[in-house]
């Protein structure tokens, strides 16, 4: 283990033990370095690394503080990490979404409030109004799902799913451009999810969400199998480009 790794482990141990609580100020680097018997240089590198990981907040001229350590803070980098992934990531991320989102939607049905329902309904109405604008429709689609998961009250789950789902939005936009009646089917599937949430029916909400995500996954598998989905070799973007899909007529 390098001296920097030792310094990182030391700071983490202080946080985990409660010696440094969220929002508290770290002792000076020189003091921390002396406790470990190392120079200030590896301690400084350790602080920089933990700042990048959103564990520490370096405030120039004031000192270094432990962040809130809230899930939304610590997991904020997930979305960026997902964007940098290479390989067959769209399909893999859709599989992960299928594993998590239906269960989250079922949980939301047991915790959703009238205010949550109003927000979810607002995004659904906006989707319907934007049915001829694929990109705008999918933006409200993503916001609809964020609002659903947020209704669980589980910040970690909300942050994780947002980071995962954000990179699948491009595939959904692509599907809307090349698949006939995709907007109509998408709206119907979202209506089913909303109705189950409004009824507080967890099983039906989970099933409706599973049908919705599985529909996108099946389509993505079909176009990948036909070699029409964009690949992601080194140096190339995995952003979908509009184009015809096998057995599908473009929307007029």
Structure in words:
A hairpin with a 3-residue loop joins strand 1 and strand 2. The protein is mostly helical and 252 residues long. The protein has twelve helices and two strands. It is elongated, with a radius of gyration of 23 Å. A two-stranded antiparallel ribbon has the order 1-2. The longest helix has 24 residues, at 202-225.
Query: Kindly state the mean pLDDT as a whole number?
Result: 83
Total helical elements: 12
What's the number of extended β-strand segments?
A: 2
The major sheet is characterized as:
2 strands, antiparallel
The fraction of residues in strands falls at: under 5%
Any idea what the radius of gyration is?
23 Å
- Tell me the distance between the termini: 61 Å
Order of helices and strands: HHHEEHHHHHHHHH
Biggest sheet: strand arrangement:
1-2
Percent of residues in helices comes to 55-70%
Write down the overall geometry: elongated
Unreliable runs: 230-252
Assign the structural class, choosing from mainly alpha, mainly beta, alpha/beta, alpha+beta, or little secondary structure: mainly alpha
Q: How do you describe this structure in short?
A:
With 252 residues, this protein is mostly helical. It contains 12 helices and 2 strands, in the order H-H-H-E-E-H-H-H-H-H-H-H-H-H.
List keywords for this structure.
single chain; 252 residues; mainly alpha; two-stranded antiparallel ribbon; 12 helices; 66% helix; 3% strand; elongated
């Amino acid at each position: 283990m390098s001296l920097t790794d030792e310094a990182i482990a030391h700071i983490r141990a202080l946080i985990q033990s409660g010696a440094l609580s969220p929002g508290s100020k770290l002792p000076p680097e020189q003091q921390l370095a002396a406790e470990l018997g190392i120079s200030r240089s590896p301690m400084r590198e350790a602080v920089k690394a933990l700042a990048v990981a959103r564990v520490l907040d370096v405030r120039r001229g004031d000192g270094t503080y432990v962040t809130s350590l809230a899930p939304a803070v610590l997991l904020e980098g997930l979305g960026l990490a997902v964007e940098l992934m290479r390989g067959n990531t769209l399909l893999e991320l859709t599989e992960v979404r299928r594993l998590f989102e239906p269960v989250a939607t079922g949980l939301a049905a047991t915790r959703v409030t009238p205010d949550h329902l109003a927000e979810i309904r607002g995004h659904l109405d906006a989707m319907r109004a934007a049915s001829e604008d694929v990109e705008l429709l999918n933006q409200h689609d993503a916001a609809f799902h964020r609002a659903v998961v947020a209704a669980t009250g589980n910040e970690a789950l909300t942050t994780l799913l947002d980071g995962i789902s954000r990179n699948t939005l491009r595939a959904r936009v692509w599907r809307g451009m090349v698949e006939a009646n995709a907007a109509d089917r998408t709206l119907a599937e979202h209506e089913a999810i909303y109705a189950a949430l409004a009824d507080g029916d967890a099983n039906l909400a989970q099933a409706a969400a599973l049908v919705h995500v599985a529909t996108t996954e099946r389509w993505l598998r079909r176009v990948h199998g036909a070699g029409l989905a964009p690949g992601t070799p080194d140096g190339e973007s995995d952003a979908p480009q509009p184009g015809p899909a096998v057995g599908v007529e473009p929307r007029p």
